[in-house]
C-alpha cells in the first residue's frame, strides 16, 4: 500500500503494541516479535494532509517485527498476543503460553489501495484490493537483514 503496510491486524489494541510482544499466528503458525515502533513516512502527507501527525501518536503507524518462527498467515486466522515474562524470553523459540488476547488477521495484498483503519472493541480492518489474492496463505520466512 502507499503506507508500506505488509500486514493488517484486527482487534490488536495499541496497549499490546510494544517491544518484546510476540504475535503468534494461529496455533503453531508464524510467530512475529515486535522490535520497535514503525515511524510514519513523510510521504504520507501526499496521501492525506495531516495523516503523518495522526499516525505519529502511540503506535498508530504500526510496528516493526522480526520473524521468530516461520509459518503461514491467512485471512481469519486467530492471533495470540504473548507478553514477555519479566525476565525476558528464554530463547528464540516461543514456548506455549496461556492466551492473553485473540483477534483476527487480514493481509494487505493490493499495493494500489489504501488500508482502512478503525478503533475500538469491535475494530475492523478491511482487506485491501483484490481479495482473490488472499486465497493462498501468506508464507512468512526468516530473512537475514542486509
TrEMBL record:
InterPro entries the UniProt entry points to: Pyrv_Knase-like_insert_dom_sf (IPR011037)
Domain of life: Eukaryota
The species this protein was found in: Eutreptiella gymnastica
Bias (Polar residues): 114-134
Region ranges (Disordered): 114-146
Name of the molecule in the record: Uncharacterized protein
Gene3D superfamilies linked: PK beta-barrel domain-like
Amino acid at each position: 500500500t502507499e503506507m508500506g503496510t505488509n500486514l493488517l491486524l484486527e482487534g490488536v489494541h495499541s496497549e499490546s503494541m510494544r517491544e518484546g510482544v510476540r504475535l503468534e499466528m494461529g496455533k503453531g503458525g508464524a510467530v512475529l516479535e515486535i522490535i520497535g515502533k514503525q515511524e510514519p513516512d513523510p510521504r504520507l502527507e501526499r496521501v492525506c494532509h495531516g495523516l503523518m501527525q495522526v499516525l505519529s501518536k502511540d503506535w498508530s503507524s504500526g510496528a516493526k517485527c522480526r520473524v521468530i518462527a516461520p509459518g503461514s498467515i491467512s485471512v481469519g486466522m486467530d492471533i495470540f498476543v504473548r507478553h514477555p515474562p519479566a525476565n525476558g524470553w528464554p530463547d528464540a523459540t516461543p514456548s506455549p503460553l496461556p492466551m492473553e488476547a485473540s483477534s483476527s488477521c487480514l493481509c494487505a495484498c493490493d499495493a494500489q489501495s489504501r488500508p482502512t483503519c478503525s478503533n475500538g472493541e469491535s475494530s475492523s480492518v478491511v482487506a485491501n484490493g483484490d481479495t482473490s489474492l488472499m486465497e493462498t496463505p501468506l508464507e512468512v520466512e526468516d530473512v537475514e537483514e542486509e
